[in-house]
Amino acid sequence: MKVFDLIVIGSGSGLDLAVSASEKGLKTAIIEKGPLGGTCLNRGCIPSKMLIHSADLISQIKKSHLFGIKTKITKIDFKKIVSRVVKTVDQESREIENSLKHSKNPVLFKGPCKFIDFKTIKVNNEILKAEKILLAVGSRPIIPNIKGLNKVNYMTSAEALRLKKFPKTMTIIGGGYIAAELAHFYGSLGAKINIVQHNKLILPREDIDISNKITELFKKRYNVFTEYEAEEVKKKGEKFILKIKHNEKNISKTLKSDQLLIAIGVTPNSDLLNLEKTKVKTDEKGFIKANEFLETNIPGIYALGDCIGKFLFKHSANLEAEYVYSNLVLNKKEKVDYFAMPHAVFTNPQIASVGFTEQELKEKKIPYSVSKYSYIDTGMGHAIEEKDGFVKILVDKQGKILGCHILGHEASTLIHEVIVAMKSGNGNIKNIINSVHIHPALSEVVQRAANNLF
Question: In degrees rounded to 5, what are phi and psi of residue 378?
């Protein structure tokens, strides 16, 4: 048995904590069964955004005629686009692993693990024990119970980011972030896209105006089947044959495609750890229960990231890692401050959000005022012909920002002005109104949305 001060399971945001703890003198072990770097590096935000950049360039080129420029895309080298991403990601993951292999602290243990006793873990043929343990094991795609699905070679996002052959037609089951982003990537490169979504909207958790608009835009570009459920799938030669049925109407359809992507959400990897051996509790969905300090019901065992289900973003996991470092390593008890936690969806157009949606404010019966301003009504918005984009801001009676939702070019960048105002300022919309904005920078659309409130 090998005894450590701290054991970290998972090398995503957990890796930063393991390194920081070792630098503080804690004898630290880090366990990882897959490639080093976690979901974000290997099969999430990094490879997907690298691929999506190619899609964004294609989308821009296709719009060039609006600006008096005649262009023609003569060839799209799909293999080169994918190989660039795979090479970059795999190289970085290998570099992390090689660095840890030569490290005396933290010590890397590569392979699947599970608890075999209280705070005692088996990885491969080795037994590890520690008083302090961090569970940062992430999540994996949910695989729905569709007749015949277990008999066909469907994809999840992991495979979709590493395809070797470009599909002429792709069917996507799901209408969330991953579905929207991969539809944008493959659709921009020329694939025919079918989207099967059980909800009536694409991205239904976004603010209602965002969801309505992105659904409208997607229905113009792709074959979108909202309020449909997948019933059965089979292969006929190289083709996927998917039967779908409307939730309420007696309407059934059959979709044919070269690839089938499952993107309906994720489930935590907590079920792989044998947590009952160390008495750590999970909720009904399998997410590890962690308190406001990120400590589980067992003193000394903490958890962060996707496996606790609070926010499923890399930046939220990084934030949580900072608090675990303070609470677990430094023994300074601090409650996690999730206020103004933003997110973005890198589809076309981009989407970014922070704070409450309008439907959440209505549900909670919180009084609010709302303002919307279109990109096209600003100098830069007109210059770039951004006809669909808008900024929506929600405030209370005193002008405190309750939420902001942006759809349009560089939404993921523009939202940061509002994030800073909410998090670091006093949270009042007048911080944005009273700031001098460069004319005609695109950020004027945020200021003008704010000005419209008064």
Answer: -115, 165
- H helices of 368-407, where? 379-383
Q: Count the alpha carbons within 13 Å of 183 in the hemisphere toward its beta carbon.
A: 34
Cα distance between residue 278 and residue 51, in whole Å: 41
Contact between residue 219 and residue 202 where contact means Cβ atoms under 8 Å apart? no
Residues 6+ apart with CB under 8 A from 89: 37, 41, 42, 46, 47, 50
CA distance 408 to 397: 27
CA 321, CA 427: separation in Å to the nearest integer?
A: 25
Catalytic machinery residues: 439
First to last CA, the chain: 67
Q: How far apart are CA 266 and CA 306, in angstroms?
A: 9
- Taking the C-alpha atoms of residue 411 and residue 206, their distance in angstroms, rounded to an integer, is 14
49: Cβ contacts below 8 Å, ≥ 6 apart: 346
Residues 217/246, Cβ–Cβ less than 8 Å: no
Interval 320-356: pLDDT, tens: 999 999 999 999 999 999 999 999 999 999 999 999 9
Based on its alpha-carbon atoms, the radius of gyration of the chain, rounded to whole angstroms, reads 24
In the numeric block, the tokens 């301003």 are attached to: 373
Q: Which pLDDT tens digit goes with each residue over 182-230?
A: 999 999 999 999 999 999 999 999 999 999 999 999 999 999 999 999 9
pLDDT interval class at 425 (50, 70, 90):
confident
Beta carbons within 8 Å of 144's beta carbon, 6+ residues apart: 173, 230, 262, 264
Rounded CA separation 445/83 (Å): 38
Amino acid (one-letter) located at 249: K
Q: Is the dihedral of CA 140, 144, 150, 156 positive or negative?
A: negative
Strand, coil or helix: 194: strand
Whole-angstrom distance, CA of residue 454 vs CA of residue 452: 5
Q: What is the pLDDT of residue 454?
A: 84
Using DSSP, state whether 442 is helix, strand or coil.
Answer: coil
138-152 average pLDDT score:
97
